[in-house]
Amino acid sequence: MTKPYRIDHLVLPVEHIDVAENRLGNLGFTVAPAALHPFGTQNACVFFADGTYLEPLVIADPAKYNASIGRKDVFTGRDQAFRKHAGGEGFSALVAATQDALGDHDRFVASGLSAGNVFEFSRPVKMPDGSQSEAAFRLAFAASGSAADFFLFSCQRLQALPGDRAALERHANGVSGLSEIVLFSGGDANAVQLIETVFGCDGKMSPDGDMVFATGNARIRLTRKPVFDGLAFNVPEEGGSGLRGAGIVFSVRDLAVTQAALAANGVSSAEAGGRLVVPAAPGQGVAFAFEEK
Q: Which residues are within 8 A (CB) of 64 and not within 5 positions of it... i.e. 6 or more apart?
């Protein structure tokens, strides 16, 4: 049986990259230098020792961004729709690591879940020591529902990110990687099929009624409850409203270290279910939680 795909990274649209850098820094994360995309967006990633990363994403060059949308590029088109729907910030996409994005695209088309054409691009990567290289990617998209909804894609690294990111993977909050991604189903009848198709793993019902998927490196939890570890998250008033990113759970070795790092920077957190939970804030468009593993 084929192994499930691994989670590669998470896309987190933000309005201002400096606000995101400051917020993530206060949360105890080491943030990589900002990097521009050729289609008008910019990121400042947070890399983890388990090979995953967060991608805070801002619109840096509106002209290039709008030109990309005009070409009907899936990534920028859905980013624009998501920002309009979510008020500019949030958690818009979950990304699977792949060695064959073209094959994934064929699978997505066959399952009726393709969100559009395969997309390739490259971008510069700057390291803390000032050195620079180039990374290249090929993306295959899958989604259900409207263009404003949460979506998934697989990412093939044609030119890998720099191999030695040790300095960027050390975080004052003790985070080593991703533990669980929580999604709100929003009445999307195709959500289970979407996740199973992209990650190649079957969902299993948990005792509390959620559907849980064991990817190659972290869990995905699909829930119908509009809460994240006891804290309500933003769900549009009308019923349904489509698939949404609800929260991100990080792995740490010692919650006391995490709590101290948050407190030192004036970040409030709440204990819930053995986790430390930090509600969404400007520059952090979705709830974060930390748990010992």
A: 38, 39, 40
